[in-house]
Design goal:
It contains 9 helices and 2 strands. Strands 1-2 form a two-stranded antiparallel sheet. α7 packs across α8. The chain has about 180 residues and is mainly alpha-helical. The chain starts with a helix and ends with a helix.
C-alpha cells in the first residue's frame, strides 16, 4: 500500500516538471580571457631568449636529477602467505565408520570431522548417550572436549518418523 502512495507522489505532475528542467538555461563554461593569447605572444616577441630557455636542457639540473635515488620498501604484510612448495606437517586421519567412498576420498586433519562423521556421532550419542559420551567422542575423532560438548549441545540430528501403514490406509479410505 505504501509503494502505491509513494509512486503517486513521485509521478505527480511528472511531465511538467521534466519540461521545466529541460527548458532551463544550461550553465556555460567560464569564458577564456580574450587577451591571454595576445599577451603571451607579446612577451615572446619582447624576450625571445625565454623560448630558448624553456626548450633548452639544463645540464646542472639534469645531473642533480640523476643523483636523486629513492629507496622504498613494501610494508610487511600482517597475514603470512603460505608457500605451496613447502609441505605442511599436519597430521591426517582416516574416516571413521563404513562410509568410505574411494572416488571422493578425503584427507581430514586431526581436530576436524566431515559432515557424515558429524551426523554419525550425533546419531550415536542420541541413541545411547551413556556409551557415546563427549569424552569418548573427543577421543575417538581426535577433537577437543569443549568443541564436542558444544556440538552435542547446539546441534541436533533430524528425526525421521515413519508412520505405520495402517494409519495411511485409514486416511485414504476416509475420503
Amino acid at each position: 500500500m505504501g509503494a502505491r502512495v509513494t509512486r503517486a507522489f513521485r509521478n505527480f505532475n511528472l511531465e511538467n516538471r521534466a519540461e521545466r528542467e529541460i527548458s532551463k538555461e544550461k550553465p556555460s563554461a567560464a569564458p577564456m580571457h580574450p587577451r591571454t593569447r595576445t599577451l603571451i605572444l607579446e612577451e615572446v616577441r619582447r624576450h625571445p631568449e625565454l623560448e630558448e630557455i624553456v626548450k633548452r636542457k639544463d645540464d646542472k639540473l639534469l645531473t642533480l636529477l640523476k643523483e636523486v635515488y629513492v629507496e622504498s620498501k613494501d610494508p610487511v604484510p600482517h597475514v603470512r602467505v603460505k608457500d605451496a612448495s613447502i609441505p605442511q606437517s599436519t597430521e591426517l586421519r582416516l574416516l571413521k565408520g563404513n562410509h568410505f567412498n574411494l572416488m571422493a576420498s578425503q584427507n581430514i586433519p586431526k581436530g576436524k570431522i566431515s559432515v557424515v562423521e558429524a551426523l554419525t556421532l550425533l546419531n550415536n550419542h542420541k541413541r545411547s548417550p551413556e556409551t557415546w559420551t563427549a569424552e569418548k567422542i573427543a577421543q575417538e575423532y581426535y577433537l577437543e572436549l569443549r568443541d564436542v560438548r558444544s556440538l552435542l549441545t547446539f546441534f541436533i540430528a533430524f528425526d525421521v518418523k515413519v508412520f505405520p501403514a495402517d494409519n495411511t490406509k485409514k486416511a485414504i479410505s476416509s475420503k
